[in-house]
Amino acid sequence: MRSSRGCILKTLGLVTHFRDADSVLRSLNKIQLINRDLQFSRSNECLMIPLKRELSETELSVLRKHSAQVRILEMDFPETSRRPKNLREACPELPPNILDQLPRSYDIIGDIVLVEIEDELRAFSNVIGNGVLKLYPHLRLVVRKTGKTTGQYRTRNVEIIAGEGGTETIHREFECRFRLNVNSVYFNPRLSYERMRVAKQAREGEVVVDMFAGVGPYSILLAKTQPNVRVFAIDLNPVAYQYLKENVLVNRVAERVSCYFGDVREYTPRLRGIADRVIMNLPSLSSEFLNSAASLLKPEGGIIHYYTFAHRGDTMEKVTSALQVLLKMSDRSVESFTFQRVIKEVSPDRVQIVLDSIVR
């Protein structure tokens, strides 16, 4: 029924915690239960979702597998106007010259949106952040990247510009759960399919060394995809290492993933000759660690997944030749490249490349 305020409707709503919102929303979408004529509401760490009708016991039990705290209540929801199609429509109060400079893409990690805002738009950060939340009402927080990813820890500082709560979140990817803090560890959601591509290549009984494991996206996905592999996951960032250990336990792969804290070069003597496969996802410094990667491979060789940066004008032949020269200095050679591709643009003149190489 309509309340006396005119633009508010009292109806059934579902209450869930923000950390479970993605899974709950997917389930509700499958059975088309979300009332799109009403706006979602937020309160503390909970999301309130308007429903079209009551849920059956079966439907409710399915939802509670995703969120044990889910509740169905009668509550007030504001009527919604047409949802904005893009950020320009979501920020009508901005002047036209600013609208032309709005960011066109974002990184969504868990219930947090990371957005790049040019320095000349900083004064409008809050308006832009609230506009992003209009586009993605099920998300909780919008943060602005305040610098580039730098250093061995691969961290980037962020500034909260809209929403509520802290910068820790849980990101879901291919049935894996990764707890992380976007302000203190590196995580790139755009590499999800690249991680699955690598994971699918592992064979039964392989030993894999993830030299720069971070919070565990490669290591954990690989262990869940190929349950008979053994993974050694190493990272130098103390915060990432703590999340790595937690994520290994949460994803139930502790028997297959061993976690090590520190510089991978410290562990090279201990793990020398152990690996069938080495993952080198540190593109800014990967060339400096190739000697360690070569030592980690078994004497008969194996596969190295090598990530590096290159100028946009560089040919693939130039990039592969550089890797061959570096490996030759470690008394190894590339038998063949089984995969080579630009996987993302870093800046207008810089790209990230992956090379899968069979090394002997």
Structure in words:
With 360 residues, the chain is an alpha/beta fold. The protein folds into 3 domains: 71 residues, 2-Layer Sandwich (Alpha-Beta Plaits); 80 residues, 2-Layer Sandwich (GMP Synthetase, Chain A, domain 3), CATH 3.30.300; 177 residues, Vaccinia Virus protein VP39 (Rossmann fold). 27% of the residues lie in helices and 30% in strands. The chain contains 11 helices and 17 strands. The protein has a 7-stranded mixed β-sheet with strand order 13-12-11-14-15-17-16, sandwiched between helices. Strands 2-3-1-4 form a 4-stranded antiparallel β-sheet, with no helix packed on it. The chain has a 4-stranded mixed β-sheet with strand order 5-6-7-8.
The dominant shape is globular
Task: Count the domains.
Answer: 3
Beta-strand proportion: 25-35%
Q: Report the total helices.
A: 11
Helix content: 25-40%
Query: pLDDT below 50 for ≥5 consecutive residues: which ranges?
Result: 1-6
CATH class of the largest domain: Alpha Beta
How would you write the strand order of the largest sheet? 13-12-11-14-15-17-16
Structural class comes to alpha/beta
Largest sheet: 7 strands, mixed
CATH superfamily of the largest domain: Vaccinia Virus protein VP39
Determine the mean pLDDT. 91
SSE order, as H and E?
EHEEHEHHEEHEEEEHEHEHEHEHEHEE
Question: What order do the helices and strands come in, and which of them pair?
Answer:
Layout lengths: L7 E10 L3 H10 L10 E3 L2 E5 L6 H10 L4 E8 L8 H4 L5 H4 L7 E3 L2 E4 L9 H11 L5 E5 L12 E6 L4 E6 L2 E6 L10 H8 L7 E4 L6 H9 L4 E6 L2 H13 L6 E5 L2 H8 L5 E4 L9 H7 L5 E10 L4 H13 L5 E14 L2 E10 L1
Parallel strand pairs: 6-7, 11-12, 11-14, 12-13, 14-15
Antiparallel strand pairs: 1-3, 1-4, 2-3, 5-6, 7-8, 9-10, 15-17, 16-17
